Amino acid sequence: MAFRRSGPLKPSAGRGIVLPTQNKPKTLLTAKAYNQPSTVLTRLDRIIKPGASLEICVIRSQGGIGDVLMTLPTVRAIQEKYGGPVDYATDFEYLDGALPAVLKGVPYIRNVIPYRDVQPQLYDAVLDLTCPCVAHEKPHAPPVNRIDLFAKHAGVVLSNFQIDYYPQPEEIAAAKLFLEQDRVLGMRAYKLILVNPSSSTTRRDVPLHVFPRLLRDLMLKNKDARALVFTHYTDCADAKAIDWNNIPGVIQMKDYSVREIAAFMTLCEMVICPDSALLHVAGALDKKTVSFFGPTDPRARINHYPKAVAISPGNGLSCFPCWYDQCKSGLLCWKRLEHNMMLGTLHSVLNDLLLSSHPDLVYGKIFSKNSSYEVL
């Protein structure tokens, strides 16, 4: 596998991925709000016989990479309960085919198919998980993780909240080989930090001036560390203008696919990112993660990721969390970031040091035990 800029994905016809068909019927189902759970499985429960092995199709036709990953605990629970194969229908056109790509190798999914190609007559049940989770993400709403929302919508009870992601051996081998090339000679002798400075929306991104200074000081403080900064052609123009390679100890990695980035992530000590898809990949790979949250609430994202720490400068503001809804402060939350606190947090997480208490920090490893967190 050669690492290069990703073109349109052409999924393999092998296990777990199927090619699109030519016939594209209309979308089957309309989305329901999170507080209107689907009745598909409850109706199924009334008619199934003991020991039956049922074929079920799950649809997630909207949303991004993180949403697809957060549906997986629900999909796994469905497969375990009903025993038969589960097909997953999603959008093959989003971000060069990133959605079917992240499902590669998931053992409880038989096929990944384009959502427009679903033929309901082939299944015992078709469950639409295109429920609008954003209906719950409103100013001052109780923080509920989307993992829990998908399960609630489907009508299943989760005992295992782990997101599954399966890096392939050839992907990891290619990442190792890349780090042994001349331009990054010796990188594998260092503690590697994977940095994702941008999310799918600039409202969730840390202000552009923050990351270069933060990485420069972190590298000065940790001579045994190196950072791989992953940027993408979809980043905004100002983000593209940053000369990451001019920061000592930093190498810019441009236009890699999500699976390629995940392969590098397996070799890294720590992940630094905003509220983005790679936060959930890091959670699936059980990586130490420091994530940045501005207008969104980390309590609705990281509580199922034991090694995640969130820096949330909006804590204490009367408008937090606003979830972008009619923000009148110009995202004041981001303006309250404290450089020394961020640097100290990154240094402590990287080196497994005790984190100091700070009102802007939220800890995944303890938040799931907080009785104020609402799990539906």
The low-confidence parts are 1-34, 366-376
Report on the biggest sheet.
Answer: 7 strands, mixed
Name the helicity range. Answer: 25-40%
Judging from the principal axes of the Cα atoms, what is the shape? globular
**The CATH H-level homologous superfamily of the largest domain:** Glycogen Phosphorylase B
* Number of separate structural domains: 2
> Count of helices?
12
| Relative strand content | 5-15%
According to CATH, what is the class of the largest domain? Answer: Alpha Beta
CATH topology of the largest domain: Rossmann fold
CA-CA gap between termini: 42 Å
- Whole-angstrom Rg: 21 Å
User: How many DSSP-defined strands?
Assistant: 11
Overall average residue pLDDT: 84
H/E series: HEHEHEEHHEHEHEHEHEEHHEH
Explain this structure:
This protein has 376 residues and is of the alpha/beta class. The protein has 2 domains: 115 residues, no CATH class; 199 residues, Glycogen Phosphorylase B (Rossmann fold), CATH 3.40.50. The chain is 27% helix and 14% strand. The strands form 2 sheets. A 7-stranded mixed beta sheet has the order 7-6-5-8-9-10-11, sandwiched between helices. A 4-stranded parallel beta sheet has the order 3-2-1-4. Helix 7 links the parallel strand 6 and strand 7. Helix 2 packs across helix 4. The radius of gyration is 21 Å and the shape is globular. The N terminus and C terminus are likely disordered.
